Automatic annotation (TrEMBL):
Domain of life according to the entry: Bacteria
Annotated region described as Disordered, given as residue ranges: 92-129
Protein name, as recorded: DUF1559 domain-containing protein
Length: 129
């Protein structure tokens, strides 16, 4: 899972009043690999990127669907073919953050005595294999 960078980015202070239509605004959703370290403070993704297209996109290992937690608390399933609906879930244009607010540090995470290096993105196979 990863946060919607339009709402959950570095030093953000977005409240429900700013979100507006919480029934149609994504807070978090399934994330494509590579995953962030658990508890990462930079675990957000840009909702404008097409799903399952790269390391900073939303999506999931079953590429036909993405599960989304909306700001009103509901969880919905958005099929990959519903691109217009996906665009509406990102939030109002006024929520778009300054690109500096969503930059990640250049240094990798440290896990004990070794750096965390994300695995390369793998192609999903048939889930029934």
């Amino acid at each position: 899972m990863a946060g919607n960078s339009w709402i959950l980015h570095r030093n953000s202070s977005v409240n429900f009043e700013k979100i507006g239509d919480s029934a149609h605004t994504m807070l978090i959703a399934d994330a494509s690999e590579p995953y962030e370290v658990f508890g990462s403070t930079t675990n957000w993704r840009d909702p404008e990127l097409a799903r399952n297209t790269g390391p900073q996109s939303f999506g999931n290992c079953f590429p036909g669907e993405t599960f989304v937690l909306l700001a009103d608390g509901r969880v919905i399933q958005v099929p990959l073919v519903e691109n217009e609906r996906w665009k509406l879930l990102r939030g109002r244009e006024e929520l778009r953050p300054d690109p500096l607010a969503t930059q990640r540090p250049d240094t990798p995470w440290e896990l004990g005595d070794r750096p965390y290096v994300p695995r390369p993105r793998q192609q999903s196979g048939n889930r029934n294999r």
